[in-house]
Automatic annotation (TrEMBL):
Pfam families linked to this entry: Sulfotransfer_1, WSC
PROSITE patterns the record matches: WSC
SMART domains: WSC
Similarity field: Belongs to the WSCD family.
GO molecular function, one term: sulfotransferase activity
Name listed for the protein in its UniProt record: WSCD1 protein
Amino acid sequence: MAKAFFRLQKFLRRTQFLLFFLTAAYLMAGSLLLLQRTRLVIQQGSRGTPANQALPVPDEMPRAGIADPRTLQNPRPGPRLLVGMDALQEPALDQRHSPHWLTSRNSELRQLRRRWFHRFTSDQEPMQPAGFKATKHTTEHKGTYMGCFTHDSRERTLKGAVFYDLRKMTVAHCQEACAERAYTYAGLAYGAECYCGNTLPAAASKAEECNSECKGEKGSVCGGVNRLSVYRVEELRAGARRRRNVIYRGCFRAPENLTDTFPASLIQPNLTVEMCSEFCSKKEFPLAVIRGQECYCGYPTGRFSLREGTDGLRCSGTRNASGPAEGKYCLVYQTPVQDTRCTDRKFLTTKSKVFVALSSFPGAGNTWARHLIEHATGYYTGSYYFDGALYNKGFKGEKDHWRSRRTICVKTHESGKTEIEMFDSAILLIRNPYKSLMAEFNRKYAGHLGYATDRNWKGKEWPDFVNSYASWWASHVLEWLKYGKRLLIVHYEDLKQSLIPKLKEMVEFLNVTVTEDRLLCVENNRDGNFKRSGAKQKNFEPFTQEMKELINRYILTVDEALRGRNFSGLPREYVPR
């Protein structure tokens, strides 16, 4: 008996020692993880904000002691959607438990912020010293290196198209982008910005002043601070490939005085579309206009807005007209050249007194609306989230603190009472839920420009997604109608069909004055860089009858709520199908 007791005592002592050892190891691992996270946060703070500039702080806070909602692990859940008008009149019930769709959304937002943070810290490479020498100017690139030149972002020397890629920019990528648009020169600045043009900059700089390493190619130089590394673009595309970039815009009635309307012209026997397009591209104009043997180059203007096209049959004899008197109509083509009259953007010079939200359900066209607003007003838009993919493509407001008030408006998908009441006013963008759900599903599984696979659509992911997100589409509108202080309702379909009138409403709501030519420039660049190419029609119906019945109930609820607040109801195409 004593021997058995002794064995038991020995076993317990060993177990106690083992538990003590495991506890100590656990605490040490936790301490190391905490120290590592602290170091990353300090590093991010020192890189993201200059030493002599504090992070912008908003003028007012909703109330003392309120925390930034984006730092909370579990944001306050929005109310459950009630089919009927009661959702607008009574406070939300059961706030202690988030609905399934909100839990999924919060998880996605946390992952998005975490992904952006790691991308941001990895992108912040130290600047090369002034003596940094380029080693790949001519060895691996088809273009001819012309030298280092002065660059002014306001008075650009290369006045053509502009591209950004703050993660993967290379010399070859910039050259190819400019060559596809028929430009002669490609210039790179800040390691990530690409500029195109047909005129070589006049002010040369010292070679060592172009010292920024390309973000996507170590050892290669992509300009510097206010400096351009300029290459002469070789023929990277065959003539047939270049022709594909010329887009037929239609047949239009010719203005009374073409010489006054268009700043450049050419008279050429046996004139072809290729001749006129190449001539206008070299002159850096986005439109090529053909009437008989005459070629005109210019921009859309008040005199020639391209809004009212005519029957193409009226232009059937245009190419054979022998003189100006015989040509009442003209053919219009879009050249590869970008209309740059509205591409300049900046942050607000003083903090905005009115805090404006650009609110929408995901997949409702918020990024496209931001593109239109930025190019129409000339000011960057901000974001409640930090999306590195958008920042890398030129939405510089992504990295600005969302409450800095240095942007013209702030993108948000939030729909909680606290988040809504932080804003003084809002543009509420609404899109057909059938289209919105499909767009967001594509983004979730294939990114901003990709498409989800048939396997995703036919698997369990799609039914789960619809069940979770359909109610969010409706509750988002209902909550903004209930708690929003000053709203402008914009339907995506109306904006797409009547771009200029609707964009004018949005710009006036933002209290910004713009010229007609700038709005026409926006219309000429309406798609931006975040439009999915092609429709990619599916050979099956993604929505089951049960899904349709669920979504249709939400459509009727939102339509009734809008009319109850004296707004116009949903467009007819939203009507349950």
